[in-house]
Queue: 2 jobs
Job 1
Amino acid sequence: MAEKLADRLRGKLKPRPKLRLRPEVLLCPNVPAPMHGVAPRVIMGPKWWNETRRAAYRSTSYHCAACGVWKVAAKGHRWLEGHELYEVDYAAGTMTYVETVPLCHYCHQYVHDGRMTAELQRGRMPPQKYRAVLSHGDAVLAAAGLSRPSWRERDDAIKQVIMNGRVAEWGRWRLILNGKKYPPRFKTKEAWEKEYGR
């Protein structure tokens, strides 16, 4: 019995399913600041969120959609995390919910690199974990022939969009979920800055 359990934990009894990996998920845009704190899981509540994320986990037979690791073999935590994907239209000020995908802890941290960097700066994330997460995500992308633009390149691209006036004003932003529109949690950028200590 103990040997069978050990084999299962090593992944020997869980063959990897024919899984179409989606490493491009690691390149999804960051949630725009006006939409921080506005998410389907917040709006729809814990019952909806638990059903949605569990369905996402089952859809990949409990493997990370980006790197393909089985949940019990994942780095950091031995479970999957649900990540909400959006289509973002900066000019219109809309963030449309597309789906929830299962990610391992390292892939999920990589997607939320802004939050991860803030945690590092506050001393809440060890530098070695920060580097390990970045190495993991970069390797997943490289294996697929992809790469993520540097912080400077992403920052410059956002500045260009802002300078060209192609970003909706703060109060015009909306999350679109099931055809319904939801406004920002914070009425102004100043209120957001106060909450996030910027």
Job 2
Amino acid sequence: KLEAGKFDVRKEPADLKNVIDNRLEFFKPSATDAKLNFGVVYDPELPAIISFDQAGVKQVLNNLISNALKFTKGNGKVEVLAFHHQAGTKVGEELARLSSKPTVSLPEDKFVDAPESVVVAVSDTGGGISASDMKALFSKFKQVGSKSETQIKGTGLGLAIAKGIVEEHGGSIGVVSEIGVGSVFYFVLPLT
């Protein structure tokens, strides 16, 4: 499926909050063991029901949350932010509705032409990712950072699969990061 670039996405009306809450419950023990602050912040204007593939979005969240937990040290913070994006509105204004902000600001230019959508961002206070490493993040079989540095093993397929699932929804996925501050991986699910 990854080679063909095709993912079976079955969109059905569902509550995105339920899927996110389910993933938070699943990862809470790992976050507690790692001594991390872990939570979710919802936009009061987030639509109650949207059309999306629950299993696919669960897989995307699994990847983004598990990566954030792996790369964030004890006493750090991993937070999921979900908000409603209106076409033509600045993301900064929309994030102002939330009780918490991502560690690194989302790029306004990525949302200028975005249709009405739901944005889910996984924000962490990890070490950050260099600009050169960010270019390879969503490629197959790529892992950033040296293994001796991170001691973290994986196939390097998680983000490539997440990208495929989000793009099958007609959406996009991206990352912003600042060394020493943290990273924010986000994906956009169009509502139209």
